[in-house]
Predict the 3D structure of the following.
Amino acid sequence: MEKIIDLISGEMKESFKKSGYDEKYGMVSVSNRPDLCEFQCNGALAAAKAYKKAPIMIANEIIEVIKESKVVKNVVAVNPGFINFDINDDYLASYVTKMLNDENLGVEKVKEPKTVVIDYGGANVAKPLHVGHLRSAIIGESIRRVNNYMGNKVIGDAHLGDWGLQMGLIITELKKRQPDLVYFDDSYEGEYPEEAPFTMADLEEIYPCANAYSKEHPEYKEEAQNATYLLQSGKRGYMALWHHIINVSVNDLKRIYGSLMVDFDLWKKESDAQPYIPDMVKYMKDEGYAYISEGALVVDVKEETDTKEMPPCMILKSDGATLYNTTDLATIVERVKLFNPDDIKYVVDKRQSLYFEQVFRCARKTKLVEDKVDLEFLGFGTMNGKDGKPFKTRDGGVMRLEYLIKEINEAVYNKVMANRDMDEETARDISKKVGLAALKYGDLSNQASKDYIFDIDRFTSFEGNTGPYILYTIVRINSIISKDAAKNGTKYDDKITGSYSKSESELMLSLTHFNETIYNAYEENAPHRICQFIYEVSDSFNRFYHENRIVDEADVEKRASRINLIKLTSKVLSVCIDLLGFEAPERM
Ligand code: ARG
């Protein structure tokens, strides 16, 4: 369906044309004075200059024409030349009825679907998932869902970090603790055990311990670097240990991502790109893109227009070791080969923006991707604590994601239990769903690139601009619909016949912005647009609910229209929260 604002603009343009003016002056916008009118057109002011007439004269001519249109009502010309108006009730009712009867609620899918790879995992194997990875997961998942909804072919990739020094550190620490393990016996030629010699809990202890120790002891760090090098060169015992580390921790990561309702189509890892490196390096050298500088192999990525320092992109270190850059470039090669994408989006901490600028420039300059491929860095800001500093646990440590989720669920559980008594299992289930909504909405309602303050009390509140408030609204609507079915049991036609009160037309009007919101969220990779929209819809609904009879409305036609209106509201809200990546419980 066409956006409501475009339909109205179309009508206004027609009126300008009919009155002898260029139709471009007929642009309409949502009024910034909703107390005066719903929409406005300021075109008469601009036209006045071109046609050398007083703007109010033009505005008056236009309203004489547009008054006849069935799309608008209450049209007035206001000095010096504004045209203010509202949308016609019947027209509005027919628009929302169409939405109700459209399987996509009025959203048109993209005409030519694109293949889009989204990189929004980035968790590091063997290191506990921490809140730093939370935003990638939450924002990326929503962008993935929106792209799917719009009809694109989407490949969400976890791109786990499994190829860095952390592996060497763990191997070194294991060797120190259990030197007799068969993995460290260079003369061993048999099969290695299937069972890992450690659990996830062990790994969670081993990595931080090794990391801390290496900071104080250079010789230990050197050993870890060497172990990393040996692993990357394919040393058998180390490879076997590395496989164990991956298996143990990927299972754990899958469980945690699952509890966040975050899904990946692909569980690729940095190591999967390694086979592409030798050919890529050779190609860059052969084509003359890469050259040796101070022993390292680099590609210049400076451009004349640069105002900031742009260091060259390093491909190989002087000892031949590969870097984070090398892996990201090789991953581009891999993605192009496997999926031939139109677009690759990276949902990563914005502090990596310079790094990605280098990688993208290098990929373009060396023609790893065709010009038409979009490489997009969607950098997000930091999640801060109430003190405005990066989020920490109470004792100042890095917050583990799992604890954070638990803490939120607990806060919600206490609220759920405080208000009514229900059995433990139901309360836990509700708390999980509401907790996830609190966490995700708290994050997504902010423009992604901005830092935000993580505030459990605010996020879990059932009032205000929060996830629980939205869920509460959905639950309320659904319970009214059930109540109506139980009490009246009327079979209604799927029709919204008209708006019978101001709060009713306000609710309708806010629902009409659904398709526009989804297009914007899609084009701008901006889930916060959806949050803004559902908050407005929820507010409109609650106002409508307080001011109007629904189940008790005696006039059947009115009641039918209202039930249909709230059905549409529930559908729209449900699609939106699904696009944000959370779901509503049956009751709260
Ligand atoms: N593993 C990285 C980290 O923890 C994030 C990876 C982001 N994605 C990428 N393609 N570089 O910082």
Observations:
- The chain has a mean pLDDT of 94.
- The chain is about 50% helix and 10% strand.
